[in-house]
Amino acid sequence: MRLIHLLIFLVFAGSVWAQQSARVRELEKQRKETLEEIRKTGELLKQTQATEKDVTRRLKLISQQILSRKKVISLLNQEMEVINIQIIDMGKQIRVLETQLQQKKESYGKSVRSMYRRHASQDKLLFILSAESFGQSLRRMRYLREYAQWQKRQATDIITRQSEINRQQLELKKTREEKTRLLASREEEQQKLEVEEQSQKDEIAQLGKKKSQLQAQLREKQKQADQLNRMIEKQIAEEIAQAERERKAREAAARKNKKGDTTTPLEERKADVKGGYAMTKEEKALSNYFSENRGRLPYPVTGSSHRIIAPFGEHQHAALEHVRTNNNGIDILASTGAEARAVFNGVVTRVFTIPGFNNSIIIRHGNYLTVYSNLSQVYVKAGDKVSTRQKIGKIFLDPSDNTTVLHFQLWKEKSKQDPEPWLGN
Known about the structure:
Elements: H1 2-47, H2 55-120, H3 123-129, H4 134-208, H5 211-258, E1 270-271, E2 278-279, H6 281-292, E3 306-310, E4 313-316, E5 324-327, E6 330-334, E7 339-341, E8 346-354, E9 358-365, E10 368-378, E11 385-386, E12 391-395, E13 397-398, E14 403-412, E15 415-417
Antiparallel strand pairs: 1-2, 3-6, 4-5, 6-14, 7-12, 8-9, 8-11, 9-10, 10-12, 10-14, 13-14, 14-15
Helix pairs in contact: 1-2, 2-3, 2-4
């Protein structure tokens, strides 16, 4: 019964150990991924220069670095907590095994002493004579011998198991010491980054003294953004109107067919919402597929180094205390020479130019649209079908600060969406 209890305990402990080890591996994986993000952000920081135009971008990148550093520290703390639990659990296992080992040793000693007495005196003969038959006496002696051997094997197995647990515990302690060193290192790096962030904030404060100049720049940028937004809305309205005309033309053709007219009807179209874009069956399927890939769309830029430097929506301006800015999409800082790429299969519906955003491309995916702005070159034209990850243009390299930034928007019908939750890799 004790053996059964021991086996059950070891199996349970092994299962818990495996789960905890898997958790540590997952945390280590997340930490390595976060460190890789920090490395990429560091590369982007090297690309940006401390100019008046670029200082806010640098501040955002540094802020993201600090958040990433804090995430690394949090992951390290979680790893250490799991390791501490493992050490406690292993200590419990060792104490249980030591108790079992002591019992096995005592039982084994009794068996050895009993066998010795039977071999060293007339106990063996008496043991044989007390049996009902000679065969039974032989079986008794074989039983005692095998029992002693079994006890010895059990003791050896437990010693081996205890030795392995002690080794694992020592390894865990070494791992915890390593994590402690890493934690200290990360905290030191975070402190350095916080100092750097404060330095950048001081630069922003200096820029804040030039409020009139900054406000003028902001008004001009907002004017350009409004112009881009009007262009997108105009294109959406035109496409909705065209689709509606086609839908009505089909209905008219269908009525004529009932009267014997042989006019070939247009493809059936239907909108998901009143006043929305009337889709064909093919466009409806594409729209559904686009929606199903939320969180898995590729980033609309080539290259491994890219970072969102201006998120979607309304935000406090970095240098002007009472000024808030509104972003209809996201701004992605990419590596020099990066190209824009389609995030999904679709059809190019418009290519146009807006001051401040250079060339722009609109791609329709059913009743979803994606917009790619700030392109120096365009590789596609209206009416072209594009596929996921297809390169559609080269992103403009700003010579004033040597940055490559893509402005990316995502719309559903007439409504702007936050693109970030849609992107995955």
